[in-house]
C-alpha cells in the first residue's frame, strides 16, 4: 500500500514538474521572439545580429525546460 502511494506521488510530482518547468520557458521564448521580430521590423539592417542573439537566448532558456524533463523522468523511473 505504501509503495503505491509513493508511486502515485512521484507520478503527480513528475506531472507538476514538467508542467511548471515547460510553461516558463515557453512564455519567455515567446516574449523574446516577439521582441526580436519587433526589432527586426524597426531596423532591418540588424536582422542577423538580432536573429543570432535570439536563437542563443532561446537555447539557454530552453535548457530549464530540459532540466525539468530530466527531473520528471527521474521521478518516474528511479523512485
Automatic annotation (TrEMBL):
UniProt xrefs under PANTHER family: ATP SYNTHASE LIPID-BINDING PROTEIN, MITOCHONDRIAL (PTHR10031), ATPASE PROTEIN 9 (PTHR10031:SF0)
Chief location: membrane
InterPro entries documented for this protein: ATP_synth_csu_bac/chlpt, ATP_synth_F0_csu, ATP_synth_F0_csu_DDCD_BS, ATP_synth_F0_csu_sf, ATPase_proteolipid_c-like_dom, F/V-ATP_Csub_sf
Record organism: Subdoligranulum variabile
Entry membrane topology: Multi-pass membrane protein
Name of this protein: ATP synthase subunit c
Keyword Cell division assigned: no
Gene Ontology molecular-function annotations: lipid binding; proton-transporting ATP synthase activity, rotational mechanism
Gene transcribed to yield this protein: atpE
Protein localization: Cell membrane; Membrane
UniProt-annotated site: Reversibly protonated during proton transport, residues: 62
NCBIfam families, A to Z: ATP_synt_c
Function: F(1)F(0) ATP synthase produces ATP from ADP in the presence of a proton or sodium gradient. F-type ATPases consist of two structural domains, F(1) containing the extramembraneous catalytic core and F(0) containing the membrane proton channel, linked together by a central stalk and a peripheral stalk. During catalysis, ATP synthesis in the catalytic domain of F(1) is coupled via a rotary mechanism of the central stalk subunits to proton translocation. Key component of the F(0) channel; it plays a direct role in translocation across the membrane. A homomeric c-ring of between 10-14 subunits forms the central stalk rotor element with the F(1) delta and epsilon subunits.
Transmembrane segment boundaries: 52-78
UniProtKB keywords: ATP synthesis, Cell membrane, CF(0), Hydrogen ion transport, Ion transport, Lipid-binding, Membrane, Transmembrane, Transmembrane helix, Transport
Statement: the UniProt record of this protein carries the keyword Membrane: yes
A single cellular component GO annotation: plasma membrane
Amino acid at each position: 500500500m505504501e509503495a503505491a502511494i509513493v508511486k502515485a506521488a512521484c507520478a503527480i510530482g513528475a506531472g507538476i514538474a514538467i508542467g511548471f518547468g515547460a510553461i516558463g520557458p515557453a512564455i519567455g521564448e515567446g516574449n523574446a521572439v516577439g521582441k526580436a521580430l519587433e526589432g527586426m521590423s524597426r531596423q532591418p539592417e540588424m536582422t542577423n545580429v538580432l536573429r543570432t542573439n535570439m536563437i542563443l537566448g532561446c537555447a539557454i532558456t530552453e535548457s530549464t525546460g530540459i532540466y525539468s524533463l530530466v527531473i520528471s523522468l527521474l521521478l518516474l523511473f528511479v523512485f
